[in-house]
Automatic annotation (TrEMBL):
Classification via Gene3D superfamilies: Phosphorylase Kinase, domain 1, Transferase(Phosphotransferase) domain 1
Signal peptide stretch: none
InterPro entries: Kinase-like_dom_sf, Prot_kinase_dom, RIO-type_Ser/Thr_kinase, RIO_dom, RIO_kinase, Tyr_kinase_AS
Name the record gives this protein: non-specific serine/threonine protein kinase
A Pfam family annotated for this UniProt entry: RIO1
PANTHER family recorded: SERINE/THREONINE-PROTEIN KINASE RIO1
EC number: 2.7.11.1
One Gene Ontology MF term: ATP binding
Family membership noted in the UniProt record: Belongs to the protein kinase superfamily. RIO-type Ser/Thr kinase family.
PROSITE patterns assigned: PROTEIN_KINASE_DOM, PROTEIN_KINASE_TYR
């Protein structure tokens, strides 16, 4: 007798697109046996029913499009244990009072990192910042709301988007950075035109694994860098605003 769970796993693993991914080499790296077990558990829980193609194959993680058991679109971010930057991860985790990990176990570091990303997204979501709603973090896998249209086309990063109203988009982003700082007590730490998606004209902030609490020793350095990036990115879009102007908006000076 085939159990429902086994059936789900079979569906998950036999989905053509996963094979397609494996053919392109990244699959063998992404879907090591621990990752497969994690995907299996997530499928049993109903969070991932079908895994479709990769939206992005990044340095440390791949992001896939998927569907949950209710046939709703989800984004599935899977960190590769082999190519993650543990030094960086450890550095950011250590100063974070939410986590108490003293380990050099790579898997544990990644798991904490993914939990951190989940919790940062949740904090941002709860104060009303436009981020993908996080659904679940398990081991090296983060499942979150899919950002894109109903047909399943993912939203493009700001860098690749054509926006007609850069001034308005910048104001919204600065407002998000401000409420992140003031209400969620969080600094993104990796804000750039890669980590801002434009969904139907609206900016959506993603990739919050690196985010730190404002009392983290590097929070100001990261906030300054985030602001520098905004100045540079929007200069390319024809908006001239200084770092100090943005900073005074965020700090209410
Ligand atoms: P990385 O650590 O590789 O930079 P990101 O979280 O920035 O990971 O995701 C990489 C890319 O995947 C993004 O630039 C975006 O194109 C896509 N992406 C990430 N999360 C989502 C999502 N929730 N919905 C749609 N696309 C996403
Ligand atoms: Mn990114």
């Amino acid at each position: 007798k085939v159990s429902k769970a086994d059936d789900d796993l079979r569906k998950l693993l036999s989905e053509k697109r996963i094979k397609g991914i494996e053919d392109r080499q990244v699959g063998s790296e992404v879907f090591d046996s621990m990752t497969l077990k994690t995907l299996y558990k997530l499928s049993k829980m109903g969070h991932i029913h079908i895994l479709k193609g990769a939206i992005s194959t990044g340095k440390e993680a791949n992001v896939f499009k998927g569907y949950n058991k209710d046939n709703e679109l989800v984004a599935v971010k899977i960190y590769r244990v082999r190519s993650s930057d543990f030094k960086k991860m450890q550095y950011y985790i250590q100063g974070d009072p939410r986590f108490n990990v003293r380990t050099s176990n790579k898997r544990q570091i990644i798991n904490t990192w993914v939990t951190k990303e989940y919790r940062n997204l949740m904090r941002a979501y709860e104060v009303g910042v436009n981020v993908p709603k996080p659904i679940i973090a398990k081991n090296n896998v983060l499942v979150m709301e899919f950002v894109g249209d109903e047909e399943g086309n993912p939203a493009l990063p700001l860098r690749q988007s054509k926006i007609s109203n850069p001034q308005e988009v910048l104001e919204k982003i600065v407002d998000y950075v401000k409420i992140l700082y003031k209400d969620a007590k969080l600094v993104h730490g990796d804000l750039s035109s890669y980590n801002i998606l434009i969904n139907d004209g609206e900016p959506v902030i993603i990739d919050m694994g690196q985010g730190v609490l404002v009392n983290h020793p590097v929070s100001m350095e990261l906030l300054n860098r985030d602001i520098d990036n905004l100045v540079k990115d929007f200069k390319k879009l024809g908006i001239h605003i200084t770092k100090d102007e943005i900073k005074s908006k965020i700090m209410d000076l």
